[in-house]
Amino acid sequence: MAPSGSCMKRTCQRVLHWIPVLFISVIVAWSYYAYVFQLCIESIEDMGEKVATLLAYHVIFILFTWSYMKTIFTAPMTPQKEFHLSHADREQLEREGRGEAHQEILKRLAKDLPIYTRTMSGGIRYCDRCQLLKPDRSHHCSVCDKCILKMDHHCPWVNNCVGFSNYKFFVLFLGYSVLYCMFITATDVRYFILFWTVGGSIHKNILKFVDGLPDTQAKFHIMFLFFAASMFSVSLFSLFGYHCWLVCKNRSTLEAFRAPAFRHGTDKNGFSLGLSKNIRQVFGDEKKYWLLPVFTSLGDGCSFPTCLVNQDPEQPNSASRHNPSVMSSEETHSFPARPLRDSQTHLLSDGASQNDLRGTSNPAVTIENET
Question: Does the N-terminal or the C-terminal CB of the chain have fewer CB atoms within 10 Å?
């Protein structure tokens, strides 16, 4: 009975997680009906205006729904097999407990992996739940119950983790959501005003609603469509602006709240390569695909080029500048044998120093427990 009860609980949780998505889908479906049928077809009389409005609306609507579906149904990427511990290594770790030998095992396993971020105490980031060495910028999601590459956050409105595999889709979804709402607001406002002015007074329009005249249904939808679109425009614009700022700084939401830690200490700009390169890391090199919800992000999600010298005007003094010995120490160690992919290393080729292509040796290894 216990396994059956647990299975039923998980099923109920999965169903409940889809409620926010269903709510958004219902609103979008209603907005489509209200705008296309009640506003454009029923209310706009000029044929040229009607055709132009419908064409522009459907272009925005297709891009909006396309990016939303891609954000929902693109599975978040998890660490590759090389970051997982083998059965023999797990058994050896369990036998050693938490002593010095335990740390030596993890150090041996991590030495050939491109892992440069650390825990706040300076150790290798390790997930007990997934039993793997966590790649840079990855985190364990308690909702998905797995480690997600370049995790940004778990979004209930898409019932999915936003990370390396779908972050571009999420940003486009926000952008097209703002455009969708603003377009509806701009084209609906004239008819919204007419709703209150035609007929002489608000009271007369209310009487029309009660009497059920033929134009009442259209006016009802026009009014609430304007209110909904304008309210969503304000909230979505602020969220979209925030994520545009994150893209320009090459940070995730989690990294904005807690700066990633490197061997020399925490550095909120550790992954920032400059505005142009930061944008290309998310949207890719080919600008013709930037506005389309197709995957063009650079890299494999497991390793990222770093910039150990802070170039952010908000924080002019980085940890390495406070301590000159840090850079000299960094220069004595090379990255592990596994190189960055070509799509990542070429980001550093334009005027990048050799220090950006070097990493750190593994410090004393500690364990980061995540559940």
Answer: N
Please give the Cα distance from 306 to 355 (Å, whole number).
Answer: 9
Question: 166: alpha, beta or left, given left = phi > 0 and alpha = psi -120 to 50?
Answer: alpha
Give CA 2 to chain center in angstroms: 37
Residue owning tokens 């709510």: 23
Tokens 């993890």 -> residue: 106
Q: What is the pLDDT of residues 159-213, one digit of tens each?
A: 999 999 999 999 999 999 999 999 999 999 988 887 766 543 444 444 444 343 3
Q: Which residues pair with 139 in a beta bridge?
A: 148
Distance from C-alpha of 211 to C-alpha of 62, rounded to nearest angstrom: 37
Least confident of 11-15, 48-52, 147-151, 344-348: 344-348
State how far the Cα of 194 lies from the Cα of 189, in Å rounded to an integer: 9
Q: Which pLDDT score is estimated for 333?
A: 35
Q: What does pTM read for this prediction?
A: 0.80
- What tokens were used for 301? 């999600």
* Residue 167 CB contacts under 8 Å (≥ 6 apart), including other chains: 150, 152, 252, 282, 297
C-beta of residue 163 within 8 angstroms of C-beta of residue 77: yes
Q: Which of 155, 161, 302, 307 is catalytic?
A: 155
* Mean pLDDT, residues 19-45: 94
- Kindly give, in sequence order, each residue whose CB lies less than 8 Å from that of residue 236, ignoring residues fewer than 6 positions away: 174, 177, 178, 181
Q: Please answer whether residues 269 and 278 qualify as being in contact, where contact means their C-beta atoms are separated by less than 8 angstroms.
A: no
Please spell the DSSP secondary structure of 133-201, one letter per residue. EPPTT-EEETTTTEEETT--EEETTTTEEESTTTHHHHHHHHHHHHHHHHHHHHHHHHHHHHHHHTTSS
Catalytic residue at 141?
no
